[in-house]
Amino acid sequence: MEVVESLVIELHPHRRPAVTLDSRLEQDLGLDSLSRAELLLRIEHAFGAAAPEQAMVSAETVRDVLLLLQHAAPVAETRAPQLRPLAVPPSTGLPADAQTLIDVLAWHVSAHPDQLHVHLYGAGDGVEDLSYGALERGASEIAAGLAASGLQPGEMVATMLPTGSEYLFAFFGILIAGGIPVPLYPPARLTQIEDHIRRHAGILANSQARLLITIPEAKPVSLLLRAQVVSLRGVVTAAELAGRAGRLQRVARATSDLALLQYTSGSTGNPKGVALTHANLLANIRGFGPALQLGGEDVFVSWLPLYHDMGLIGAWLGTMYYGVPLVLMSPLAFLARPTRWLRAIHRHRGTLTAAPNFAYELCARKLPEQALEGLDLSSMRAAMNGSEPVSADTLEAFARRFARYGLRREALMPVYGLAECSVALTFPPPGRGPLVDTIDRDTLMREGRAVPATSEGASALRVVSCGHPLPGHEIRIVDGTGREVGDRIEGRLEFQGPSTTAGYFRSPELTRKLFHDGWLDSGDLAYIAGGEVYLTGRVKDLIIRGGRNIHPQDLEIAIGNIPGIRKGCVAVFASPDPASGTERLVVLAESRETDSAARERLTGEIQAVAVDLVGLPADDVVLAPPHTVLKTSSGKIRRAASREYYERRGPSARATPVFLQFAHLALSAVIPELRRGLRGIAALAYAGYAWAVLFLVAVPTWALVALARRPPIGRAICYWAARLLAALSGIRVSVTGRQNLPAGPHVLAANHASYIDAIVLGAALPPQHRYVFVAKREFAQRWIPRLFLHGLDAVFVERLDPRQGVEDVGRVEQAARGGASPIFFPEGTFDRRPGLREFRMGTFLVAARTGLPVVPIGLRGTRSILRGDGWFPRSGAVSVTFGTPLTPHGGDWAAAVDLRDRVRAEIMRLSGEPERLD
């Protein structure tokens, strides 16, 4: 009782509820899931006994916890778990030819049926080792049972099972039988099964599920669903299916067939089933594997739920494909004792893991030091943080807390993905560590521009990079009119690629709204800087107030830090005022305070935080009892549902004066719309002006160069024309490192990102030197570029015909020996996607054979001004950086390859371009 009371007093110092054996943990004492985890940790420390994780979910009163404690096992004497590195056999290749998930499993069964696949933690610390062969045998039994139950190819089978071997068998059993799995999250408490089952009726109906596989305790209640879900023919357990005699007849599936219906978080009210094919899933897995450098000696440790895409596809199916052992435990095991996650990494020398931000926050700030004694996290090379907004403060706190336990900050990896892209969309480079952009909050809210902050004060907003798109995937940021914006401009994030869903199952209207000109609208707000993606919020959650774009997450976090407010239980949203038609900024915050003076103080502190962060007070602050703010199954704030609650019965009685309501209407509606409209008009006007300037400058320049036919004169003309074009277009060109250019002949190599790269180089290179562009042979076949480039003494090379290419390289080599300095774009081409492509060898063969040094050049900003697949120019700044010359170490092929690698690494550094894996 003393342990419970001390925790309650810490949580609620202004309100001390009486603690009895029959006090309800949630309703009476206010212990949410995280507080329960803290309680169990304290019980462990006080009694030296480890309560089972069921206490996290099944215990409803203090008496329940006491009864569970009576049967608890003693805590092990040593804090450091005994090392048990998992056997990772030598790689035998990958199922590169697999067309379906079934093919992937079959390949592993054929190659190494006894190889460890999953090291599964069950109740307590009991473990079960599951090989590929064992998975296939268990899945085949389920598949035979499904066939005996009359399942037809292409029919949906819902699974409502906890993490365990039955879930793994059921998932692949459905696939082998020709069905399509529909994962549902299992009930957290047996006392809430009926309510839980009823909330899934919408998903079952939308998916047209024929069967539901669930736990025995849920089966009687689940049978009631057959009256609500017409398609549902039966509710069975995994054991019942495995026990049904039947001959298994495997059903062939194609890569274009549906493999999974993934219902998005919070979609129980309005079901949105993301339809994912085998091709989608395999493309995603084959994309994030190289991005993570999966394989070799890796061990993945996960507690992520298997009904969620991050746990199902990212952890389980991904490790299956690459033959990486998976250490798997249930989410309840983590919530009951978060140290189990960390200890599993220690025990099995885990190299990879993934979790939402809240898990890192919990471990960084809540675990007592004595619970971490002997912990060693030095094996960890990639700890992914995703599925919810990533906090820079959490990353720093976690890195700082666990540095003494061997964790390297470089292992922390913020990632971004969504079910509509199977699971993963962006990854940062492995081993780099978090990249945080500190921007001015006020400028972002007022203008939608991510301007670097000049100080770390209250107006500074720290945004975490989520990296670059996976190979084969593209991202763009668009404004309200659907036009792509430049770097550091906030807009809607859209993407396309082979992992992208074709739409929502049986929801044509929602699917139609999902796509814009072939790009899928993520619903997220973001900006791009340096080719990296920075998430700033959700479009539907954005609040336009007083001419500002308010991201509710920032305000929610700050308000949650106020003593007396339940952290993580704050919803900020806009609610329309029927009387005036304007919107109010509403803060709905959970608190257990009942004293009127204390509540008034909390309201004042909330308003002070609002004014400090967004420059405006909230129109209404509602202090609500616990469990008012609604959340998804993964713990995300459901702002729309919370707003609905507020509008039905939660608003305060205070009325806003009419004149203020009309003022709010003008500020929150007219000004932002006017600003966006003017911004669009200005962008169109600039594009037209830029093309007019290009025409007026380019035509006489082309004529003078073509008629002069004297390269020295042509270079001088182009130099001044390029500088004039940049000045008239408002493009600011900065040049650094020009002193690195040798006086004699040399080779120049630059990254290629836009059509304007040559113009920018023309404005940056001294015209008196004999520079010659190496141009693709296609230009020699068109008279307009041919006449112009001949006037500059350009050399044309063939990119596709190897024999002709060898001859052309010889001609470039001859020009270099004659005193010319060739300019190469070694990538050969470009597109709209950030990233440095593979370099062609011609540049480096010329340098190696002639002995000339190569000057690497980094171009920044040209892609933002004019993208590869667009003709809509924007103003901006461009930088040209000349690096230190690199000399070849010989004249043969090996020397050329070595020179290529060194030059490419330097250009990547100078340009800030990421690595392109495709």
Main beta sheet: 7 strands, mixed
The helix-and-strand class reads alpha/beta
Query: What is the mean pLDDT?
Result: 83
Give Rg in angstroms.
31 Å
User: Helical region count?
Assistant: 30
> What are the segments in which pLDDT stays under 50 over at least 5 consecutive residues?
578-582, 650-662, 664-669
Q: What is the strand tally? A: 36
Distance between the termini: 61 Å
> Quick one: CATH class of the largest domain?
Alpha Beta
- The CATH superfamily of the largest domain is identified as ANL, N-terminal domain
Per CATH, the architecture of the largest domain is: 3-Layer(aba) Sandwich
Question: What is the fold-level CATH name, i.e. the topology of the largest domain?
Answer: Rossmann fold
The shape is globular
Major sheet: arrangement of strands: 4-3-12-11-13-14-15
Structural overview:
- By secondary structure, the protein is of the alpha/beta class.
- It has five domains: 2-74, Non-ribosomal Peptide Synthetase Peptidyl Carrier Protein, Chain A (Orthogonal Bundle), CATH 1.10.1200; 101-346, ANL, N-terminal domain (Rossmann fold), CATH 3.40.50; 431-541, Luciferase, domain 3 (Roll), CATH 2.30.38.10; 543-656, ANL, C-terminal domain (GMP Synthetase, Chain A, domain 3); 685-911, Glycerol-3-phosphate (1)-acyltransferase, CATH 3.40.1130.10.
- 39% of the residues lie in helices and 18% in strands.
- The strands form ten sheets. The protein has a seven-stranded mixed sheet, with helices on both faces.
- Helix 20 runs antiparallel to helix 21 and helix 23 (658-708) crosses helix 26 (783-790).
